[in-house]
Write a structure and sequence with these properties.
Elements: E1 8-13, H1 35-42, H2 47-53, E2 64-68, H3 70-82, E3 105-110, H4 126-141, E4 144-148, E5 151-157, E6 163-166, H5 169-173, H6 176-185, E7 192-194, H7 195-207, E8 212-216, H8 219-223, H9 226-231, E9 242-247, H10 254-267, E10 274-279, H11 286-297, H12 302-308, E11 311-319, H13 320-335, E12 346-354, H14 371-374, E13 386-390, H15 398-407, H16 409-416
Length: 417
Amino acid sequence: MIVGKKTFAIIFIVIGALTLSSCGRRTLGGYKTIPFVEKILKDTTSRDFRLVSSYQTLDHSGPIMVIGTPKEALRMTEDILTSDRFDNVDGRMVSDSLPDFAGETVYALLDQANSRYSGYFGIGNEEFLQETAVRNFLYAMDTTTLLSSYDMERKVRKPKAKVIVLASSYLSAYGYYDIDTLINMAGNKVPILATVQSMYEYAWSRHGKGIRIGIWSSPDLIGNGVYSAVLAREGDDAAGTTIQAFAPDSSEILTDRLINFLNLYRDAGNSEPLDVLLLDDPDVDIHELKAATDSIINSDGEGRRSFSKLLGKDFECVDAGTAISWQCFTLMRERNCFTHKIAYPAFKPYITVPVTNLPIDAYMDDGSLADSYKYNRAPDSGSATYISIEMNDRYVPEEITAYMQEKTPKTYSLYVR
């Protein structure tokens, strides 16, 4: 449903429980995974299968691997590196002036070669995106990597990840469940976290079931069914949950955008207040949005009082970084898989780049894949079109470096050191 020139909204309500399949933690019964995963599961002697089945839950030395488009992966990495939401000793959700992931190493796989993910939907090639998500997950499980796209023989060691984070919401719906099926069928317990799932679980954990959730998002994510696809597979947790996703206008003043969001919510026929607002827009700062909601809640002005009634008594704003850090810290504490090193978190980046032997019209002038080629690649073709390597300036576009300097300063400082 289009509302105005610059707004987009979709509404969906879940009022009944869904049936879970026994082969997956959250996978809806009847979910059919992609052929690439089916092929791996049929050959338990294959290298890909062994990468997953060989995961050791007692090996605490591995990194946390963040996977997604460059901006999404970098923003999530920054949040994990700087997170201080917990007391590191007793696990209470209170800051203790010590990074939550002290002693840990965060790896980021910037999927530059396959970005932007929204491009696969215009031509109905979601399966290639799902396969890319699985291949990038397998890379996180691998113990070797290449140094250059020009030397396919020379490999160096890298540790197997102990936790994998899918930083793109597209991968929450198109990739996560394929990876989840592979993990479960391989008989292992590799921790795999994803943005939308983590935000939902954070909201349910803090506010209970049967709540009202609003999602601040983009037209692409909403229109491509990301939130409904994930919610439909979340089982009993989703029972009674009302979720409404909107893309507010692009005003430079954040409070005006928030009011536009609440107007969309009210215009959709809602009078009951929201319990949670999930922020799924990497260009909006969660702290600034919280300040904007507080200003509306505490306003005495007649105009804003009507909007404050749309924010519940225990209303909370949550972004993907908060939810992932919460779930990752909780999971690692439950499994006792922290390194327990006395050190600040460390960072190491990797990046996907095109292979060098593709047809000449497959490349742009800067060496990246042309959209006409990128989005039309056939899934499960058996031909590699990109590889993952250790990141260095030679392969990083200037806009990504500039983004790191401005938006992810901690990550950037560790990268250039």
